[in-house]
Amino acid sequence: MIQPAVEIHDLTVAYREKPVLWDIDAVIPEGSLSAIVGPNGAGKSTLLSAILGTIQPASGWLKIFDKPIEDSDEIIGFVPQRESVDWDFPVEVLDVVMMGTYQRLGWFRRPGKAQHDWAMECLDAVGMADLYRRQIGELSGGQQQRVFIARALAQDARIFLMDEPFAGVDAATEDAIRRVLEDLKKRGRTVILVHHDLHTIEHFFDHVLLLNLRLVASGPTDEIFTRENLLRTYGGRLTLLDEAAEAVRRIRTGTGGGGS
Amino acid sequence: MIAPNTIVILVGITALGICCGLVGALMLLRRRALLSDALAHATLPGVCIAFLLSGSRSTLTLGFGALVSALIGAVLVSRLPRFTRVRRDSATACILGIMFGAGIALSGIIQRSGPGAAAAGLDGLLLGRTAGMLRSEAMVLVCAAIVMSLLIFVLRKELLLSCFDPLFGRCSGQATGALDLLQTSLLAATVVLALPAVGVVLTAALVVIPPAAARFWTDRFDPLLRISAFIGASSGITGTIVSSSYPDLPAGPVIVLAATGFFTFSLLAAPKRGMIARKLRWSSRKRQREVRRILHTLLVACEGDQYSLSADQILAGSVSASPRALNRAIREGFVAKEAERLQLTPVGKKRALRARKSQQIWREWLTSEAAIDRDLIDLDEEEIEKLLPAELVRSLERSIDLREAIR
Question: Cα–Cα distance between B140 and B214 in angstroms, integer?
């Protein structure tokens, strides 16, 4: 059997006595591309925070590469939600990407040429090398997202967590992120991402966690990603979602047909 | 001509300006500017208690009391929102009011119980007494400025990350708590050092204004710190010199006014973010748009059977272009004017065609691409190739050609 990258056991997380994650048991195999799926407020981002170790669980434990998270000094590549920072901050693209190298540098040491070149390489991987001197506020939303991806790549971790990297990005950015994910998978890295677009799950991810406060199901996509499980995750809301998605598809194909 | 005492004051105030500028820039970036005001006001009860307990008026004793009480204020401001439902801005305002109120009450007690001379020393803390700065105090300020600059230089990457994205910092193993504590302590120390010079009420201004002014001049981290320190020092020097040349003009307020002068100048005159530059950019784009509209009208007329149009047809009626834009089009050689008749020059025609083309591509892109990144849209940008990938532009051009062929 493949070694688990992340092992979650009996995990409960609560904010002020109100549980946001309840009794989660899951295993994420090494080298997998996993999606955390669930409705708004299902605790998806909280689960990421728990794996990152930035929140204290109320009970249960987590292991990363077979080490309890408290003792683990594993570097975790992290892409936060784009809205989590102030994009008017006076800093340039390359400086942000270099932040990914800080952890390996440790206190006091300044990044040098090696870190500079490595950060440029990571920027190139998301197609942003030309813009390395831009102030981050001058970038488009998709480009900002790619800067965050490049920063995570610069961490050069074995495991990556991404919080909705595909949210609200343009087509070029979507392609760039896909390429990065495929490349990471090829190199045997584990990637876990919070994902919204149910349509792309089946083609792209080999592992899913269906989450709604409790874990509805988790495992290989072809076994777990069923209509029944989705209904249990989204409750009655999926039908509405289904309809909306169907309507959008109709509109898109409609204009596509008329345009050419 | 300059008295030795003035030199001492100038050196001390320069160092103080540097401290305030540096720590203020960090606070600005962490969006914690108001904290400086709260901490300045929170020093007052500490000073009073220190005086009541020791009976001494030495700077060291009172300063120690001020520092302890500022740190208590800082801890309260950061803990209140975490353990109660009070939000951070309310917590800051609460602590400011409560501690200052306590301080004023205590100083009232001191005034009534002791001789008037004792209270006078505390009075100076409210508005500051720059002119009374001692050589030893100036030395302390210089040391503080050196230590602070070194610390910021050595911890540059840690500070940058903790200001920009503390969450990512925590995830990548940064000791966020220690860095927070360090920055708050730097602020508390700066506030206490500034008290004798500018006083409780105005200290915050000296911490908040220089970085706010510096932000107009740069979009980068290190220059922001440097410019902020520079503006802090310059305000101090300017204010001290101005106040020393007039009798009865207290230095503290004049220093703050000087800082305000720097801020106003930056607000207006900074090259990229300043108001004048913004206004100029805006009106230049507007005029360009007008010129393009004139060229387009003439092009359409030209493609019909009208070789030229009268000036009235451009300036009035449905086009009603601005005369200034028309003059500009003529000046730039796009339009020729002969006896009140306007016509496109060859250059103008080329220009008009290019503008039309880019507009078509934009329109095609907006209607055909399903996922639009709004920030990329810039309908004024003629060189669309700069913004969109070349491949995409080519495919957009193909689909425009196709549509025209069908028509």
Answer: 26
For A2-24, give the DSSP string.
PPEEEEEEEEEEEETTEEEEEEE
* Residue closest to A178 by CA, chosen among A200, A211, A209: A200
pTM above 0.80, yes or no: yes
The one-letter amino acid code at A183 reads: D
Tens digits of residue pLDDT in B80-137: 988 888 898 999 999 999 999 999 899 888 877 766 545 556 777 777 777 778 888 8
Contact A132, A123 (CB under 8 A): yes
Helix pair angle (A113-125, A171-186), 10° resolution: 120
Closest C-alpha to B19, from B191, B178, B161? B191
Give the bridge partners for A101, in sequence order: none
Q: Beta A159-163 vs A190-194: how paired, if at all?
A: parallel
Cβ–Cβ gap B160/A111 under 8 Å: no
How far is Cα A174 from Cα A165, in angstroms, rounded to an integer?
Answer: 9
Cβ pair A141:B370 closer than 8 A = no
Question: Which chain B residues contact residue A137 at CB under 8 A?
Answer: 219
Nearest to B165 among A85, A169, A252 (CB): A85
| Of residues B372, B310, B364, the one with CA closest to residue B338 | B310
What does the pLDDT look like over B367-407, one tens digit per residue?
766 455 666 666 666 666 666 667 777 877 888 887 777 76
